[in-house]
Every structure is written in C-alpha cells, then in structure tokens.
Design goal:
The radius of gyration is 19 Å and the shape is globular. A four-stranded antiparallel sheet has the order 1-8-3-6, with no helix packed on it. A four-stranded antiparallel sheet has the order 2-7-4-5. It is 38% helix and 25% strand. With 229 residues, it is α+β, with helices and mostly antiparallel strands. It binds a DNA duplex (13 and 13 nucleotides) through helix 6.
DNA sequence: CCATTAAAGGATT
DNA sequence: AATCCTTTAATGG
C-alpha cells in the first residue's frame, strides 16, 4: 500500500488537499525499471501517465533513419509521459531509464477528474509543461545561433544544475552519461564532444571518465557557454 | 569551425 | 569473446 507522504511534498502536488492526495495515490501503482529499460516507446498508445519517484530517465526522439536525439532528462519528482495532458493518444518519444528507477503509474482515466477537482494540481502541471516548452524553445535558439563548444558547455551546466552532486573534486553529474549522449543532446557528434571534453580536462575545467563527468571549474565552463572564451 | 571516416585500445558484460 | 565507450588523426566541406 502506497502512502501519500511519498508524493505530498513533490512540486506537482503542492497545494493539494489531503483526501485528494490519498485518492490519487491509491489509484497509483509503483513500478521498478532497471537501467536501460524502456518505460514507454515512441508512437505507442498512451494509456498511462507517470511520476518518477527515484532515478533519472531520458526522453529520446528517434528518427526514421534510427538517429536519436535526447529531448530531455527527467529527474526524481517530475511527472512524465503526460500525453493525456496535451490531448495526445500516443507517446511522442521513448522514455528510457538512465539508472535503475522507480515510478508511479496511473491509468489516463484518473487524469481528467484529478485536474477538475484540484486547481493547484492543474496549475502546477500546466506550469511544468510551459517550462518544458520554454526550454525546448531556448534550445532551438541555441542550436541555430551558438557554436558547438557553447552548446556542449551549456548542456553540461544544465545537467549539473539538474542532477549535480557535490564531491571533493567538483560537481558530479549523477548518472552515467556518455559522449554519445552529450552529442545527442547538442546536435553534434561523439567525436567532437570527446575532443572538447579532452581539451577541457587538460585545462582543468572538468574531470571525466567512462560515462562520468565532474565539473571542476563551473565558472570557466559558464564562460565558454556564453561564448567568451 | 566542424563532420566524417577510420583505426585502435580500454572497459564492461 | 563480444560489445560498448573513448581517443586520436587524417581529410574535406
């Protein structure tokens, strides 16, 4: 049996009445996903919506030719797979566990009643959707105006803000991330990312290993992101 | 400035 | 052993 304290303090649910919370949580099912598992697939019928309780996952668009673009990362406490919120009946992308994850799963049928009875939940989720839209628009501008170096630096900083964990060496990005992943976030190739990271490591801005990146000099990375090298 | 191609070595399963 | 990740160099748009 799930307890409402699991979700009561998470951003999507702040301001909700206690009995509404209880009702919502009782309609949910907890589900574990091991690393690299697909939670849902692009184009599949959207029958559920989700909340990430623990872990990180990536949202990946796949083209007809098999090329992948990482649309965004979802971290703990975020809703995802909310196709129902924007009137879609299929999922627009794949959701893949970046590490072992735990999520709550609801059937879409509980979305509409929950929205209707809980104005705060409604505003919270539509705000979140708005934020994500804003983010993708910012990325569009980035892609068309900034050099690769700036885009990779920006992506690093975004990940640090979203998932950074302080260590004695700097701020570690808290899940396995490859050069390929970074290239899929920034519209470049893994080779270019590899070269950039190598150069930054020599310059002391970051430390990196296989699927590990630690930002040591975030200020200097920020300078690169903003174009003044 | 950056993508592509190729080659090779290390890490992971 | 097979596969995945990373680095490096050469070439060309």
């Amino acid at each position: 049996m799930l307890d409402k304290s699991l979700i009561a303090d998470l951003p999507p649910f702040v301001g909700m009445e206690n009995d509404s919370l209880e009702k919502l949580i009782s309609a949910a099912q907890a589900q574990r996903y091991s690393k690299n598992a697909h939670i849902f697939r692009q184009g599949a019928d959207a029958e559920h919506f989700y909340l990430l309780l623990d872990g990180y996952l990536r949202v990946v668009k796949v083209t007809e030719h098999g090329e992948q673009v990482i649309a965004r990362y979802i971290s703990t406490g975020e809703l995802f797979g909310i196709a129902v919120a924007i009137g879609r009946d299929t999922y627009p992308a794949n959701a893949i566990a970046a590490v072992d994850c735990v999520a709550l799963v609801w059937p879409n049928s509980v979305w509409q009643p929950t929205i209707e009875k809980n104005p705060s939940f409604s505003t919270n989720t539509y705000r979140a959707i708005g934020d994500r839209l804003q983010e993708t628009q910012d990325r569009l501008v980035e892609l068309s105006t900034e050099r690769v170096e700036q885009r990779v630096a920006s992506a690093l900083l975004k990940l640090v803000r979203q998932t950074g964990r302080q260590t004695d060496e700097g701020v570690l990005i808290d899940f396995p991330i490859s050069r390929q992943d970074l290239s899929e976030m920034t519209g470049t190739t893994l080779h270019t990312v590899s070269r950039l990271l190598s150069a930054w490591e020599i310059a002391g801005l970051i430390k990196s290993g296989r699927q590990r990146i630690t930002v040591v000099e975030d200020h200097k990375v920020m300078l690169i992101a903003h174009g003044q090298k």
